[in-house]
Every structure is written in structure tokens, then in C-alpha cells.
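Escalated from tier 1: guanosine-5'-monophosphate holo job.
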Amino acid sequence: MDSNDVQSDLKHVLYSKEEIQQRINELAQQIDKDYEGRDILLVGVLKGAVMVMADLARALHSHITMDWMAVSSYGSGTQSSGVVRILKDLETDLMGKHVLIAEDIIDSGLTLSWLKANLLSRGPASVEICTLLRKPEAAKVDIDVKYVGYDIPNEFVVGYGLDFAEKYRNLDFIGTLAPHVYE
Ligand code: 5GP
Ligand code: MG
Ligand code: MG
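Tier 2 regenerated the structure:
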């Protein structure tokens, strides 16, 4: 492994490819059951949710359509502020649709709580959230997340869609970074 190898930037693996696939299959089974054959509009938030979307969509047996949003959270540094700007909006009219937001991670929960309220204002039949990861801070915001893959400790993770300076999104597992990467 040379120093240019992505793997050498990682400290440890939190969830392997196999564990993630297994958990997503379980979530998909639950979702299929809950929606009982009703059509679902999966909404992915770019760019972090691409892997979750791709795998969740393929694990579901319900009829689904997919749409994407890109948002940017105003705020200083890494702390999200809850003030959100839409960079790319949905192309789908949400009226009467069952919307399921697919997310990679919920940290403060501020972005998602804004997003859920925004989507609810467009007249859908329902809006629920499915996230692969959730951090402890999220519990402080009054946001109902119906489907959670894993509750994780408050540390910075990358992989499976999650980036550090736009890198590491392509890893098929979730891990933590070695200190030499960010120090
Ligand atoms: P929040 O829930 O704080 O409003 O924002 C969540 C967003 O912050 C995620 O969509 C993600 O872009 C970023 N984020 C939060 N925690 C982490 C983490 O541990 N790793 C990475 N790569 N991004 C994170
Ligand atoms: Mg995200
Ligand atoms: Mg990011």
C-alpha cells in the first residue's frame, strides 16, 4: 500500500460493506411492509446520499421513483446553522405523493428538519426519513426519523457517500480517518 492509497488514510472500519448491505436490506424490508405496495418517491440529498439511494432503491420491492435535491447549509465552519439554501430543487410535483427522504447521516438534524418542513409544505401525502447513520446530537432536535440504520458515536466518519474535502465518498464501507489526514 503506497501513501497515495485511500486505505492508508483510514484509522478503522466502523461498518463493513457486508454489514451496510445487510442493514439496508433490513430497512428495505421494513419500508416495503410499512408502505404496503404504495408507490414511494425517494428523495436523495446530494451528494452524500448517492450510495444509500442506489442500494436502498435496489433493495426495495415497492414501486419507486427517485428525485434529487442539493442544499447548502449556511453557517460558519463545520457547524450547520439550520438556514438552508436550495442549490438544486426537485423536478417532481409532491402533491399526494409518499415521500421518503434517503440520507447518509444526521448530525445536528438542522438541515433535515428544515428539509422535511419544506417538503411538507408542498402537499405530499406523507414525508418520512430514512438515514443510514445518526449521531447523538440529532436527538436534541424534534425530528421524527422513522428508519435509522445505525446510531453512532460523535466522531467524524467517511465512506459510502460521506466525504472529507470531497474525498472518500467512493469507499464501500464506513470508517474513521487517520489523524495524519486532517492534522
Ligand atoms: P446536520 O444534520 O448537522 O444539519 O448536517 C448533516 C450533514 O453534515 C451531513 O449530510 C453531512 O454532509 C455532514 N456530516 C455530519 N457528520 C458527518 C460525518 O461524521 N462525516 C461526514 N463526512 N459528514 C458529516
Ligand atoms: Mg446528507
Ligand atoms: Mg460533506
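The chain has a mean pLDDT of 92.
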